[in-house]
Design goal:
24% of the residues lie in helices and 26% in strands. The protein has 260 residues and is an alpha+beta fold. It has one domain (2-259): Endonuclease/exonuclease/phosphatase (Deoxyribonuclease I, Chain A, 4-Layer Sandwich), CATH 3.60.10.10. Strand 1 (2-7), helix 1 (18-32) and strand 2 form a beta-alpha-beta unit. 43% of the residues are buried. Mean pLDDT is 88; it is low at 209-217.
Length: 260
């Protein structure tokens, strides 16, 4: 099974050349031909339509429509495998209306949980956590506290999955590998990082307005595919994609190949 995750950088009014980039991303997805595609930051309906129209080979998809603007938290998933029991769960806390986390509140971030009906069933938790704009991941920091709540809510859901069913936690967690937030989540869920290391997955500021973002955005790893209940006989390899040639996003994608 091959699994792709990518933050497409589709933030309205901020992301440049968004529609053009989405079409190029589709072309690269078709070339990579993964079994499952998990996308973040696909907010606008015409961007969703680009993927839905082009990815016909991925017949099974889940594109939730929650939130004030029906953005579904910007999450989309396309699969060649049949899916069942697809649900979207909003985080109880995404910040205040009067803070920099306003955008996260408008799209009502959360996570999707999907069961896959294959000879060996598995489950995927797909998410995009609130961004820690201050870059301070100490547990007492205001945004770090919000992230801790979000990770706790997800860990509660992950722990309900029977251990004999493999579960994957996929997406932009917006926390670096060395943070206590991630370590606590891994411990609570008894999961492991299937994409280990600290090589950055954020590509810097070339898409961002320097005055607004340069002081608080740096290069580090925030994109993950975590695994729980993975058989000890399983083998997995992974690599970053969308990292060469034309810049298609401010994030790299992760392509995981795992044999359960």
């Amino acid at each position: 099974m091959t699994l792709l995750t990518l933050n497409c950088f589709g933030v309205p009014l901020v992301a440049p050349r968004a529609s053009e980039r989405m079409r190029l991303i589709v072309h690269h997805i078709q070339s990579l031909n993964p079994d499952i595609v998990c996308l973040q930051e696909i907010f606008l309906p015409w961007h969703k339509r680009i993927f839905s129209t082009a990815l016909q080979q991925w017949r099974h998809r889940y594109i939730p429509r929650n939130g004030i603007f029906g953005t579904g938290a910007g999450l989309c998933i396309f699969s060649k495998f049949p899916m069942s029991n697809a649900t979207f769960n909003e985080f109880s806390d995404v910040g205040r209306w009067s803070s920099i986390t306003l955008a996260d509140k408008l799209v009502e971030k959360g996570w999707m949980e999907i069961s896959f009906d294959t000879p060996r069933p598995f489950r995927i938790f797909h998410t995009h956590l609130t961004c820690n704009y201050a870059g301070d991941y100490h547990p007492i920091h205001r945004i770090a506290r919000i992230q801790r709540i979000q990770l706790y809510e997800m860990s509660t859901a992950v722990r309900k999955v029977p251990r004999h069913i493999p579960a994957f936690i996929v997406g932009d967690l917006n926390v670096p590998p060395e943070s206590s937030l991630l370590r606590s989540f891994l411990k609570a869920t008894k999961s492991t990082d299937l994409t280990p290391g600290t090589v950055p997955s954020v590509r810097g500021n070339h898409y961002r307005f320097p005055i607004l973002f340069s002081p608080i955005i740096s290069n580090f790893k925030v994109d993950y595919i975590l695994g729980r209940g993975i058989p000890p006989t399983a083998t997995a390899t992974w690599r970053y994609v969308f990292g060469h040639g034309e810049k298609l996003s401010d994030h790299l994608g992760i392509l995981l190949d795992i044999k359960l």
